[in-house]
Amino acid sequence: MEFKIKMFADGADLEEIRIFAQNSLVAGFTTNPTLMRKAGIDDYIRFSRQALEIVFPKPISFEVFSDDLQEMTEQARTISDWGTNVYVKIPVTNTTGVSTTEILSQLSSEGIKLNVTALTTLAQVQEVMSSLVPPVPAIISVFAGRIADTGLDPIPIMTQAKRVIESNQYVELLWASPREILNLVQAEDMNCDIITMTSDLWKKIPGLGKDLTQLSRETVKMFFDDAVASNYSVI
């Protein structure tokens, strides 16, 4: 299947990043401190430099990790200097809920490409949009998967967010934290600009459009093969 949406590989495994960098479907990369910690990364700068060397010239987002807004600003300037393809991830608030819009405006005015992350509401999208300065590129990452985890349908929020960002042609909407491959189809249908994809979701792309009768037989065979391999008996 062909997609208009940009698909970004999301992770912190350098070998996976190396493989994805050769994949023509991969338009960019994202990572975050949680993914890096899970991958056993203990040197933020070393990992980032290695990842940059692998993925260039495709865009990649690295996140600040301070809870102090002034220190976030300093970290953002440092990270931005690592490469022309770098987007700096800034959370929409700090851990106490203080908005980062003031520093977003400052950094955007300095020409720093931003990926504003962890948004979950339309009000946050509107607030962030007011702080971004054209023509500096920016990404707004709405965590559609986490919205869905609360029992709410994220599509109405994502659709409205897309309308809001259309006032600035240099801003792209990113569908973050997808939970299933259906989310890729949903994001494509609503004209979202970017979606992040973990390695597990990339593996499911070949199944898109599969005949459902064939899928049923494959599922039956899986159950049968596993029962035989386990030597199960009811006698």
How would you sum up the global shape?
globular
Biggest sheet strand order reads 1-2-3-4-5-6-7-8
* Annotated CATH topology: TIM Barrel
- Measured distance between first and last alpha carbons: 47 Å
The proportion of strand residues reads 15-25%
> What is the residue-mean pLDDT, rounded to a whole number?
97
Total count of strands: 8
Order of helices and strands: EHEHHEHEHEHEHHEHEHH
Number of domains: 1
Query: Which structural category do the helix and sheet elements fall into?
Result: alpha/beta
Q: How are the SSEs ordered, and which strands pair?
A:
Elements: E1 6-10, H1 14-21, E2 26-30, H2 33-38, H3 44-55, E3 60-63, H4 69-80, E4 86-91, H5 101-109, E5 114-119, H6 122-129, E6 138-142, H7 144-149, H8 155-165, E7 171-175, H9 182-189, E8 194-197, H10 199-202, H11 212-229
Parallel strand pairs: 1-2, 1-8, 2-3, 3-4, 4-5, 5-6, 6-7, 7-8
Helix pairs in contact: 1-3, 6-8
Short description:
With 235 residues, the chain is an alpha/beta fold. The chain has eleven helices and eight strands.
What can you see in these coordinates?
The protein is α/β, with parallel strands linked by helices and 235 residues long. It has one domain: Alpha-Beta Barrel (TIM Barrel), CATH 3.20.20. Helix content is 43%, strand content 17%. It has helices at 14-21, 33-38, 44-55, 69-80, 101-109, 122-129, 144-149, 155-165, 182-189, 199-202, 212-229, and strands spanning 6-10, 26-30, 60-63, 86-91, 114-119, 138-142, 171-175, 194-197. Strands 1-2-3-4-5-6-7-8 form an 8-stranded parallel beta barrel, surrounded by 6 helices. Helix 6 (122-129) runs parallel beside helix 8. It starts with 5 loop residues before the first strand and ends in a 6-residue tail after the last helix.
